[in-house]
Automatic annotation (TrEMBL):
SUPFAM superfamilies: alpha/beta-Hydrolases
One Pfam short name: DLH
Record's keyword terms, sorted: Hydrolase, Signal
Keyword Signal found: yes
Full protein name: Alpha/beta hydrolase
GO molecular function: hydrolase activity
């Protein structure tokens, strides 16, 4: 389908507001040479007839309405106040029964709906995996584009002087987004018969801020319980790993300006807990490569991810 047609608070995870600022920069800061080419251009909200409104309600206190823009040859949403889930279902002849919730990134201020959402979901569906793009609620930004651009520049200026973020902080600031992810898993399980999905084989993959949400859903999402997770160029700070943590796939470029130099505590912790983990560190790719066709080897992350979920039995048809 084409859309254009708590457990205890976590004690070892990223401070939501500080890390979100860094994450958003990847979507908003360009070099002078590319600034004009990749200028944010407002567009009409695309038709999304397949999008299903989740039952988490409107974002409390929101005043700015949802709006969309184009950039980097792709489309982005911001000021999302009502969460939706869009199914991309595989051909029944090759459906495996596995499913993935896809969480785009954008620093919790915007969502890369095409490059890190729809394009990922379509590629998964082509492999026989049902995919569901989560358009989760976002932190509010100025309604007008010039105001939004100014706010991003101001955030960058403030963040540049910010001390290293403390992974010990709880993530109460992500409560709306975690609620949206939980609602997504609940909806898929509720309609699993209709969508031919195995309730026990629903995973989640996220990009940048979406990767942070994926881990938050894994560790603090209560009943969500992803069967496997993908962290694509997200933070790798140390966390406390539960005994039943799912298999985890991580992909990061060594030249990522945000997360390549912060250590790999997340990987170390997962392995120390004797939970399955696969880590791909690409020489080049920067941040936000997603499904963009690039000459760097980071473009191969998707094929590696598919082989990995296949190794865990997600490409085998249920009998």
């Amino acid at each position: 389908m084409n859309p254009i047609e708590s457990s205890r608070p976590l004690r070892r995870i990223w401070r939501a507001r500080g890390i979100a600022a860094s994450l958003a920069l990847a979507c908003a800061v360009a070099s002078p040479a590319s600034a004009q080419k990749d200028k944010m251009t407002p567009i009409a909200i695309p038709a999304q007839p397949s999008a299903i409104t989740l039952d988490t309600g409107p974002l409390p206190g929101a005043t700015a309405a949802e709006s969309w823009h184009s950039q980097y040859g792709s489309v982005f949403a911001r000021n999302v106040t009502v969460a939706t889930l869009t199914p991309f279902l595989p051909d029944p002849a090759r459906a495996t029964g596995a499913a993935v919730v896809v969480a785009p990134g954008g620093g919790f201020r915007t969502l890369s709906m095409e490059n890190e959402g729809w394009d990922v979901a379509k590629a998964l569906a082509a492999k026989g995996v049902a995919a569901f793009v989560l358009k989760y609620r976002l932190n509010q930004t100025p309604a007008d584009m010039p105001g939004f651009e100014r706010s991003m520049k101001e955030m960058f200026s403030a963040t540049a002087q910010r001390p290293r973020m403390d992974p010990q902080q709880a993530m109460a600031g992500l409560a709306p987004q975690i609620a949206d992810a939980r609602a997504a898993f609940a909806l898929i399980r509720r309609r699993s018969g209709e969508w031919h999905v195995d309730k026990d084989r629903i995973g989640m993959v996220g990009f940048s801020a979406g990767a942070m949400l994926t881990l938050a859903t894994t560790l603090a999402g209560e009943d969500a319980k992803p069967a496997f997770i993908g962290n694509i160029y997200g933070p790798l700070a140390a966390v406390t790993v539960p005994a039943d943590a799912p298999p985890m796939f991580v992909a990061l470029a060594a030249d990522d300006p945000f997360f390549a130099n912060g250590g790999i505590g997340l990987i170390d912790n997962w392995r120390a807990a004797k939970r399955p983990a696969e880590f791909h560190l690409f020489e080049q790719g920067g941040h936000g490569f997603g499904m963009y066709p690039k000459k760097t080897t980071s473009t191969g992350w998707f094929d590696s991810f598919v082989r990995w979920i296949g190794m865990h039995g997600m490409l085998e048809r249920a009998h």
